């Protein structure tokens, strides 16, 4: 790989970090490991072609163009957490992945799919991801930051909200959300 390709890949990964909280290669590898998938199965569940998934993972392509795919990624991340904490079995996870695959990327909070036992209310992380998904489906992180910069002098709290949820990491957004609750 020549220097120009390396720089383009590094830039794409940095954009992925700003849009999705981390490079997609790391995110997708974690989903593959946590959910016991291979790349072809992950691509199928997300509704991507295998070559597109590979390009996103390698940094040849920076952005997931379809908001429904972004929401499927978020649904799989939540599922991986539930598998890890034991609230969803491997068999249930397989059924849930089939539901994610069929989804059109609707709201995570209004999903009619099965929920983990005892999880009647949405988790803070799910609420935060829903907000992030909505903002990121409307504009790219750079545009959201530009909007935040424009708002900052008159409305610093709104500017912070846009920066944290529209271009920040999920963990930072969760901390922000929790700090602004009663």
Automatic annotation (TrEMBL):
Coiled coil: none annotated. CDD domains: HTH_XRE. Residues 93-102 have a biased composition (Basic and acidic residues). Residues 92-122 are annotated as: Disordered. Keywords: DNA-binding. Residues 104-114 have a biased composition (Polar residues). It comes from the Bacteria. One of its GO terms (molecular function) is DNA binding. This is DNA-binding protein. It comes from Streptomyces viridochromogenes.
């Amino acid at each position: 790989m020549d220097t120009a390709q390396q720089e383009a890949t590094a830039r794409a990964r940095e954009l992925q970090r700003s849009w999705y909280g981390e490079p997609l290669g790391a995110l997708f590898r974690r989903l593959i490991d946590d959910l016991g998938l291979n790349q072809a199965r992950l691509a199928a569940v997300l509704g991507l072609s295998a070559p597109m998934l590979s390009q996103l993972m390698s940094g040849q392509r920076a952005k997931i163009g379809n908001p429904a795919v972004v929401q499927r990624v978020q649904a799989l991340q939540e599922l991986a957490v539930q598998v890890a904490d034991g609230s969803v079995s491997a068999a249930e996870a397989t059924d849930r992945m089939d539901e994610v695959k069929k989804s059109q990327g609707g709201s995570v909070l209004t999903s009619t799919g099965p929920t983990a036992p005892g999880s009647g209310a949405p988790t803070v992380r799910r609420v935060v991801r829903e907000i992030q998904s909505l903002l990121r489906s409307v504009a790219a992180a750079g545009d959201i930051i530009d909007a935040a910069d424009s708002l900052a002098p008159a409305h610093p709290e709104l500017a912070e909200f846009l920066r944290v949820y529209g271009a920040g990491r999920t963990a930072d957004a969760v901390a922000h959300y929790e700090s602004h609750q009663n």
